[in-house]
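User: I'm curious whether this sequence folds into something compact or stays loose and floppy. Could you predict its structure so I can see for myself?
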Amino acid sequence: MRTAAVLNGRPAVRLGLRENVAQFTLLVIVNAFVGAMVGMERSILPAIAEQDFHLVARTAVLSFIVAFGVTKALTRPVSHRDRTNWSITSRIATLRNRGSSHG
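Assistant: Here's the prediction. I'll summarize afterward.
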């Protein structure tokens, strides 16, 4: 078993794939999922645009995809902010409940 070197009270950085196999595996998995999502978005959205919204022209389909992407990009920060606020609020409530039970 290898022990990590410590420098100034912090573990030293270990380079290489063997030392960072977990992080590398996670990176590969995340990239695979992102690639799959982009691929699905590019292949499924035009079909939805043609079938459900009866958009036949390529320009109309392209504008549908762009509108979907812009909407997704604009709503992501808002949902992240709400999730963060909810998380902070729930933590404060948990701390209050712990404090009142010991009082």
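Summary: The chain has one domain: 18-102. The longest helix spans residues 58-102.
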